[in-house]
Write a structure and sequence with these properties.
Layout lengths: L1 H25 L5 E8 L4 E7 L5 E6 L4 E6 L6 E2 L1 E6 L6 E8 L2 E2 L4 E4 L6 E4 L3 E2 L1
Antiparallel strand pairs: 1-4, 1-7, 2-3, 2-6, 5-11, 6-10, 7-8, 7-9
């Protein structure tokens, strides 16, 4: 009889822990990030960002607003985006937002072109 009770308690504990693990997995944040860039910068600029597989891609931005959605592979532990540009006018602006689960993942990154009409700025790293 003690063996049956001990077996039932063990099974109960096992099932409880499995349910808890399943619940924890369903509450994890998405691995999809949405990058959005707005502003009035008229020069040339590039976005350098982590790709879905964990590499780096450089994309020339030719028109604003710009939007990029990336779903990262499970082996990617973090993502970053950096913006750099030149040929604009001093004081022109760029605003970068990053969304995860339809909510801001970081505070917006607001960039102002310097007196030479250039800028270079990286957003905070997003860790998965």
């Amino acid at each position: 009889m003690k063996n049956i009770i001990l077996t039932l308690i063990t099974i109960s504990c096992f099932l409880s822990s499995c349910k808890k693990d399943a619940d924890n997995n369903s509450n994890k944040a998405s691995r999809t990030l949405v990058y959005e860039i707005n502003g009035n910068f008229t020069g040339n600029f590039i976005a350098s960002y982590t790709t879905a597989a964990g590499g780096t891609s450089n994309e020339q931005i030719t028109i604003l607003p710009w939007r990029k959605e990336i779903t990262y592979n499970n082996n990617v532990t973090a993502a970053i985006i950096a913006l750099s540009g030149n040929g604009g006018i001093s004081g022109q602006t760029i605003s970068l937002t990053i969304k995860r689960d339809n909510k801001p993942a970081i505070n917006p990154v607001n960039i102002i072109a310097n007196t030479s009409g250039a800028f270079s700025e990286a957003a905070p790293v997003i860790v998965f």
